[in-house]
Amino acid sequence: MPSRQKVRAHRADSGRVLEQEATVRRAARSGYTLAHAGRSFRLGPVTFWIAVGSFVIMAGWSLATGTYFAFHDDVIKRLIARQAEQQFAYEDRIAELRSQVDRTASRQLLDQEQFEQKLDQILRRQSTLENRAATLTTVPDPTPTGSIRRTRPTPLPDVSPEQPLKPSPINDTVIFSVPPDREARLESRVAPASVVRLASAPPATKPTLAGIEGTIARLQASLDRVESRQTATLNSLEESYDGKAKRMRGVLADLGINPGKAPPPAATGGPFVPVTLQANAGTFERQLFRIKVARTQVERLTHTLGTVPVRKPIVGDIDLTSSFGVRSDPFGRGPAMHSGLDFRSGHGDPVRATANGKVVTAGWNGGYGKMVEIDHGNDITTRYGHLSEIEVRAGQTVRVGQTIGRVGSTGRSTGPHLHYETRIDGDAVDPQKFLRAGLRLGNAL
Q1: 43 near 34, Cβ under 8 Å?
Q2: Which of 34, 339, 368, 401 could link 385 by a cystine bridge, Cβ 3.0 to 4.6 Å?
Q3: DSSP three-state, residue 364
Q4: DSSP calls for 111-175
């Protein structure tokens, strides 16, 4: 029974709920009625919800306005703090950018200063190399440019007194040769065009710092090549002078001639001023000093050799008809001593002095016929016999290669030829010894 009562009670409650929902739906469809002080107002659904929405909006606005005014100061403070933080961040960023700009500008100024220093060093080095090149042009080349040269200086074979001297293919010609290092000297004097352009360019057209290192490296390489050529030229000059002096001293030693006893050059003099080298002299200056000393020695030896009869006395190839030493007398008087060499040549051909000297005899001298005798110093004299004409006089100074007479057949002679003698301390010696020395000098000069 109790369960039936509960069921009936539940059904009753459900019925009342359904009735209330129906009432609400009818009221919603029919509108809302507002009563106040005995008065009632009926509102439609739309008007009701508009009013409710307006109330809700006004309430929300009031709540937001109250909240704003309640927290106004905090909001303002937070906004100001945020703006200040952003401002400080911007100022820090600007300071950092300024610092970067300053560092960049300082680095550019430093690079510009370094570039100017390097360029100044390059220009000073270029000026130094130009001065060296100008100095090199004042050093005479060891290769002679006006001396008598032999086109094919072959060694003269040893000839016994009984064996005549074979004709030697020697051609005495004056050869004017250009020194082999002349081109290098001229190149070393040419300034690198890039250096000139950099030095003379206005500031607006100077290269940017980006290409400075490459430009400077190219300039340094160009100057290195110029300096290398100058060094090679110096080494070549020093080797040439040293080798030439060594060969000259060897020839003079073989001939038994002391260079210190040679007479000094004519018309020279002046006070003695010793040559000194500065203590702070560089490698170039020291090597140049050695070259000048070697050149002085070569000049002294050349002067000495100029007084030694090492050249042949006639023009053209040698045709030796009689050598030095014992021979059969050409006029049938038995064995005889021949004190010189006989060179076959045409009548009237020029006879030349074989060294510098002074004429001591110029005239007829017994079996020599017309003869010229020249004193060369160092107790060395030469004689030229059987001449048809004499073109010098006693006491006259003659130079090597100068014509002193003409080939003939005067005196004790069987035909046109030149009788040539070399004497030391008045004693006749074999002229071939000096001619062979001349051939050696032909390889050295």
Answers
A1: yes
A2: 368
A3: strand
A4: HHHHHHHHHHHHHHHHHHHHHHHHHHHTSPPSS-SSSEEESS-PPPPP--TTSPPPP----EEE-
Q: With respect to residue 8, please indicate whether it lies within any of the assigned structural domains.
A: yes
pLDDT at 36: 64
111 φ, ψ (degrees, to nearest 5): -65, -40
Residue 329 lies in a domain: no
Residue 15 phi, psi (nearest 5): -65, -40
pTM to 2 decimal places? 0.53
Expressed as residue numbers, the domain containing 10 is 1-27
Separation CA 440–CA 254 (nearest Å): 11
Residue 376 included in any domain: no
DSSP string of 167-229?
Answer: P----EEE-----TTHHHHHHHHSPPHHHHHHHHS-GGGSPPGGGHHHHHHHHHHHHHHHHHH
Tokens representing 255 are: 């001939």
Q: Are 414 and 330 in contact (CB under 8 A)?
A: yes
Q: Inform me whether the pLDDT recorded for 191 exceeds 50.
A: no
Count of structural domains within the chain:
1
- Evaluated on CA atoms 30, 32, 35, 40, the torsion sign reads negative
102's enclosing H/E stretch is helix 72-137
* Residues 77-108: tens digit of each pLDDT: 888 888 888 888 888 889 888 888 888 888 87
Q: Tokens 């010894």, residue?
A: 433
The total of other beta-carbon atoms located within 10 Å of residue 338's CB is 19
| CA 42 from centre of chain | 117
- State whether residue 323 is helix, strand or coil: coil
Tell me, yes or no, whether 17 lies in a domain. Answer: yes
Neighbours of 313 (CB within 10 A): 25
Q: How far apart are CA 272 and CA 125, in angstroms?
A: 35
Compute CA distances 338 → 41, 79, 144, 328, 429, whole Å: 178, 133, 36, 9, 10
What is the structure's pLDDT at 30? 58
- pLDDT tens digits along 210-253: 566 777 778 788 878 888 888 888 888 888 888 888 888 888 88
